[in-house]
Amino acid sequence: MLVLTRNDVRQLVPMTDAIELMKLAFRELSAGRAESPLRSVVPVAEGAVTLLMPAYVPAANALGFKVVSVFEGNRDKDLPTISAMVCLLDESTGAPMAIISGAYLTALRTGAVSGSATDLLARDDARNLVVIGAGAQGVTQAAAVAAVRPIEKITVVDLSEDSLERYRGQIAEDWPELLDRLETSSDASVVAQADVICTATTSRKPVFSDRDVKPGTHINAIGAFTPEMQELPEETVARATIVVDQVEAVLEEAGDFIIPINKGTLERRRIERELGQIVAEEAPGRTTVDEITLFKSVGNAVQDVTVARWAVERAIDTGAGQQVSID
Ligand SMILES: NC(=O)c1ccc[n+]([C@@H]2O[C@H](COP(=O)([O-])OP(=O)(O)OC[C@H]3O[C@@H](n4cnc5c(N)ncnc54)[C@H](O)[C@@H]3O)[C@@H](O)[C@H]2O)c1
């Protein structure tokens, strides 16, 4: 069996490849050609859950699952909020094929899906990016958006000075080419200058104000992943063109939609357009320059197994990783 570390994944899967893989994965999911049962959630403690996420994407020969833990208290122990492992299986025998470190892979694919959505929905002249949430996901949000648009300025916003400092360090390590465009702030009103906004926080209430969002902005929202969590102002959700990773999953999990639907201020039928349908040209993307487009993702295991399979194929080609026998 092949074992791939964080660094192996980093070397083997460039962001631009990951962005194209996400388009393929969601095109297949929306077309009903991929299997991705709703994830099992194991509650462990207050603010601590472990999720099991299986998927099969035949077009990518990708069968496997991810185990991911989201432990919010880890931050106080100076540990990452998310830890994960992906297990890839041989699609012709079902046998385990590879174990892949999952924390960076998760951040890579979560950034990459925002990169795909930005590529399909943002204005071509988008130059100013604001990322809210300076955690592991916020880093790859910036890298992904900068890979698809001519971004000249990246402002990352967080309530925590420590997070902002760590963010700068992580950008310097993994994406040094972005460093000279990076500014940090604790004030979310900087979204008033944004052409693209990414929200990647653990917040339970909106992280910016609707009045600051200018016409033509594209928003990627990837943070809130339970019915109680909310990152987006309800007014912004109400006036945006909404695109999601998977309709069924966001209606089950995304508080950004569930809370206003339950209040009666958002019609459920507004959530009907999937990223994969836009990739397949079965649904429109942006239709006017002034429209606010909103992409909401709660994440799907098709992303993990597709990137994992790509990494394993590149590793086999290049001899990267370590072979171990478990039998
Ligand atoms: N959609 C997906 O596929 C997907 C994948 C992975 C993680 N996530 C979710 O994304 C979120 C971020 O993940 P992470 O690994 O980067 O977490 P993290 O804990 O490393 O970072 C979150 C950051 O958000 C900041 N924050 C919280 N509230 C804020 C607010 N109101 N304004 C500004 N900053 C605020 C925190 O200070 C922290 O620095 C989590 O909720 C996680 O579950 C989603």
Descriptive account of the structure:
With 327 residues, this protein is of the alpha/beta class. It folds into 2 domains: 2-105 and 301-323, ornithine cyclodeaminase, domain 1; 120-296, 3-Layer(aba) Sandwich (Rossmann fold), CATH 3.40.50.720. It has helices at 6-12, 15-30, 103-121, 136-148, 161-174, 234-239, 247-253, 255-263, 275-279, 301-318, and strands spanning 2-4, 40-45, 48-57, 62-71, 82-89, 96-101, 128-132, 153-157, 182-185, 196-199, 218-221, 241-244, 293-296, 322-323. It has a 7-stranded mixed sheet with strand order 2-3-4-5-6-1-14. A 7-stranded parallel sheet has the order 9-8-7-10-11-13-12, with helices on one face. A hairpin with a 6-residue loop joins strand 5 and strand 6. The longest helix is centred in the middle third of the chain and has 19 residues, at 103-121. It starts with a strand and ends with a strand. The relative contact order is 0.19. The structure holds nicotinamide-adenine-dinucleotide. Nicotinamide-adenine-dinucleotide binds next to helix 3 and helix 4.
Number of domains: 2
Main sheet?
Answer: 7 strands, mixed
Helix content: 25-40%
Q: Would you identify the CATH H-level superfamily of the largest domain?
A: NAD(P)-binding Rossmann-like Domain
User: What is the string of helix and strand elements?
Assistant: EHHEEEEEHEHEHEEEHEHHHEHE
Class based on secondary structure composition and strand pairing: alpha/beta
For this structure, what is the CATH class of the largest domain?
Answer: Alpha Beta
In this entry the ligands are:
nicotinamide-adenine-dinucleotide
CATH topology of the largest domain: Rossmann fold
Cα-based radius of gyration, to the nearest Å: 19 Å
